[in-house]
Amino acid sequence: MMTGRRFMRRFSTPNVGNSYPKHIISDGLLFTELPEDVIVLVLSYLDSRSLCRLCQVCKLLQKICEQACVWKKWTKRLTICSNGCDLSNKKSDVNNIFNNLSLKDQCRIGFNWANGSTEIRTVMRYHVRQLPCLSRDDQYIWISSRSSICCFRQQPNSTLREIRRRRLQGVHHEDVSKFKARDDLVVSGGSDGSISCWNGITGNRLFHRPASYGHRDDVSCIDIRKNIIISGSRDKAIKVWSINRADNDNLVHTIGASDRMWSVAISNDLSCFAGGTGGHNPTPPLRLWDIDTGQLQQILSSEESRNGAGVLDLHFENPQNLWSCGYDACTRLWDTRTGTCVINWEDPYDTTIYCLEPCGPYGIVCGTSMYGVVRLWDKRYTKSVQMFYTMDKSGSSTPVYSILANPRHLYVALDKCIRLVNFDVFGSHAKK
Description:
alpha+beta
């Protein structure tokens, strides 16, 4: 590999003195005296490490090496890199910070993802073991703790500061089992089967339905988009709710799922919703229902589906593409137009996939069931890009119950703490 000094010596003339004829001295041309477009062309043949070393030679080369055209080709190779990073929360301050970085710094963060160069620390700790849930709206991060849902603002240094006036206390008589925050609304389901919806800005409760009117068992999955709420429970029932019903009867449909529900997701265009069950035969583990009519629309099945291979998490990338993961240790991408599986990744250690989160146009982050392991996948490859161990110093094995990902940070919810994986670090501070 060519260092900066050797690079300069190769493209410059020898150290000529007064003993050489003047025409020889005048013919000498330093590399920095070449036209800028020629220098950029030469730099396109260097690797990323050589580019970083060349930045330390002089101010002129540093200025040229930090131009976006020099790093443009690397954005197409990295799994996590901005330049059109398609984030679901475009109004987020954290995402705006990343998009405002230079392309060189964005590539640095992308290389940290690929090489596993991170800084991991605990941002929240629990006294007893819990099943925490994470969710995010346009500006805030919401974290459940027992019967409360706390609101946090992410600081530029990646720490979390709680906004106490937005805390939702006494949401349910028992613990919060699942909740979702989106479009300044927070909807939650309790382990007692009740359903509540809140205004995330004012903290006012929009409606509450007790267990006698909600579900007969704990709410295991819930989702909200616009004014539509979908909830599922272990009582083998799916309920469709509407916030804007004028008759104060928010229930629109009750659908029998024939198996316990583990996950639901509403499509981006509000045309349908997906539901994942326990996968016990003969009930298909993954199906699509029409929101308006409540009728079964499509069955998404794979030849590799096993009995009991329940679907634990779902995410609509767009109305045509649906991500799923679950007990069969596989992460799949489904085409809802044809009902076929187009991508199938199997965990190398055959561990259950509890949750998933898209990050950028190519990246998918998955949380597994053992030792707080999080895997990064790329749609363009068949093998995982990187694996991260996020467990604390206790070393006890714990599933990853929920994750939140953006290009700079990754929040991981374990049984006794919330861990932060920071990728916006430099080589001397990074740990592999």
